Amino acid sequence: MELLEERIRRDGVVKPGNVLKVDSFLNHQMDVDLFNEMGKEFKRRFAGCPINKILTIEASGIGIACIVAQHFHVPVVFAKKAKSINLDGEMYCTKIQSFTHKKIYDVIVAKKFLSPEDHILIIDDFLANGCAVDGLIDLIRSAGAVIEGVGIAVEKGFQRGGDIIRNKGIRLESLAIIESMDDQTGEIVFRS
Amino acid sequence: MELLEERIRRDGVVKPGNVLKVDSFLNHQMDVDLFNEMGKEFKRRFAGCPINKILTIEASGIGIACIVAQHFHVPVVFAKKAKSINLDGEMYCTKIQSFTHKKIYDVIVAKKFLSPEDHILIIDDFLANGCAVDGLIDLIRSAGAVIEGVGIAVEKGFQRGGDIIRNKGIRLESLAIIESMDDQTGEIVFRS
Q: Which chain B positions have a beta carbon within 8 Å of A75's beta carbon?
């Protein structure tokens, strides 16, 4: 998506260790007009899919997911990083490893919000090693719901997340895929 | 706001200990059409205020804030619950007590996203004891920015948060204010 790539080139900052900071428009300060253009593009790419719900994970996926949901006219459910695991059987639960924070989270969704009748689009801001999306896929499968696809704003194409999801036979649409970055020059190369 | 009160009456669940569960439309599953009506109402109430940015806090405030922001044509910044405190001076930092999770969080906003030129509307889903909003006010004041007001979806009128904010001379607009709840009968009384 040209508009997003331009914005990443303009406002993204490449840091050592293959870190891309996009906190001025994507995941700390959020440009809702840009999110709306992303919503239109996801709607175009997933046109005809019987999506009735969007699933994301707290925190930075929520804003994009809500704006995108307007284009599909469906509700959003966000998976929560659990403070304490509820063992009363009312939650689907999985574990997600965060490389950024070097810990493993228990992540939950209330069972009443995922059912075998649901056709789910997963939305998230970033895809790198794929752990978060993999956890959401696990939650959806626990519920017996259908995964219509995964929509990502920025995919780090040089990490394994994209391949993991595509190898499961799940449709993945990333609006910008970064092929390589150089923290010395600031250059960012996108997959065409 | 009649539409929100009706929805709380229909789908809210009163639990012992003055707990109101609105997770089917507000803070776990999210009804973005309802959020849009809330956005229109906040825009009506804060019409004429020179708001140029919306500030909220992760996680459940983010969805509402993003949808509301579309009606003001401004970006959203969300304060983050810090995993580790960054002491490099690039963050405004405050502490927020969570009664729900019985802990104190360090909460941060990057300094580059709050400045003395900013006129901020705070948006959050719930107001009870006021700790979260009070922390956001503290962050805004650290930056020397102007607080135009606070917009809340559901205020528990019988807890002290509303008074704390109003007593600071800050304009508070809550779309539904609960005067009392009864977990035996399920009855919810709204402030008129």
A: 25, 29-32
CB A7 within 8 A of CB A34: yes
Q: From B183, B186, B188, B181, select the one nearest B6 (Cα to Cα).
A: B188
Helix (H, G, I), strand (E, B) or coil at A177: strand
Please check if B79 is assigned to a binding site.
Answer: no
CA torsion B165→B168→B170→B176, rounded to 10°?
Answer: 20
Q: Per the CB < 8 Å rule, is A66 touching B30?
A: yes
d(CA B166, CA A64): 32
The two beta strands, B103-110 and B76-81, are: antiparallel
Answer for the pair A145, A87: CB distance below 8 angstroms, yes or no.
no
pLDDT tens string B22-46: 999 999 999 999 999 999 999 999 9
Q: Does B35 touch chain A (CB under 8 A)?
A: yes
**B14 vs A176: CA distance, rounded Å:** 44
Write down the number of H helices and E strands in chain A.
Answer: 5, 11
Of B75, B76, B145, nearest in space to B115 by CA: B145
pTM: 0.96
pLDDT in tens, B167-182: 999 999 999 999 999 9
Q: Name which of B147, B138, B121, B5 is nearest B64 in CA terms.
A: B121
The mean pLDDT of chain B is 95
| Minimum distance, in Å, between the CA of residue B123 and any CA atom of chain A | 13
- For chain B, count helices (H), then strands (E): 5, 11
